Amino acid sequence: MKKIIFSVGIIVVAIIIGIKYLKPNKIISPIGSGKISKEKKLAQYSYTALQKTTFSGSKIIIDKIMKDEEKFTSYLFYFYVRGKKVSGLMNVPKKLGNYPAIIMIRGYVDKEIYQPGVGTSHGGELMAQNGFITLAPDFLGYGYSDKASTDAMEDRFLTYVSVLELISSTKNLNTALEDKSLAARFDNIHLGIWGHSNGGQIALSVLEISGKDYPTVLWAPVSKPFPYSILYYTDDIEDHGKALRKVVADFEKDYNAEKYSLINYFDWIKASMQIHQGGADEEVPQKWSDTLVETLKKKEKEVEYFTYPGEDHNFDQGNWSLVMQRTMAFYKKCF
User: How many structural domains is the chain composed of?
Assistant: First the structure.
């Protein structure tokens, strides 16, 4: 699995001197070139800079039907991030009514096998059957979205921006539902976040940057400091992470990595959380989540924690239904 997570990234290293999420720009002198220096370009993505950024949102466009079932329909949808189109999968209950909405953030998926909904569709469909609207963004460069940034480091940071823009865009969700003549409506009050694996890291970052109380469920979240949280996944790469280590070293020459590491901003979190972790997870070791929960509780954050001995990263060893049951019960309690 670790090899899958980074194999495509290493191919990108060979082609464009970097990998997915971690490719540096050369520093360009601002004198005479008219170009933005690396420092100016990427400083806007530090946690403190993003905290001060305004996310205005965009219109939401509901497109073609991807799946039509008795109690829900799955649609391809679009929203915009800094002028670029981002696709995603939306699950909508068929019954007339006002419903809470859940933003679902997947973990890493190889672009070669990715389709809208991979990593979220199973859970999203069950939630739609039980009274939730779900929206799962593909992110730039995935699905039917516009191309990702040519700067892979910026591409990484834009995942936070994309989720924050989608959250702001939910104010336009009912207009999109009305335009599609659907019976369901977002209640405009209850908005939650779900994140798995690297999606958990994005979710934690969004909670920190926004400072909002979005009830959040995390499945096996990546919660270690940057850049260790990425270097950890290089042991199975053909070059044993040599290219990646150079990219990280180059980045740290120009930036203070601490300003891009989520563990330094837990104090900013105001949301209640529920965390699930498998004891046999080979991708996110249980000790990571143990430490995360311990840290959050020391900071007096509201968090529920469930562990599942013998369970894997995707909760495929018999506990998936229980995890989903607890996930939906948490949202209903919070809402």
Answer: 1
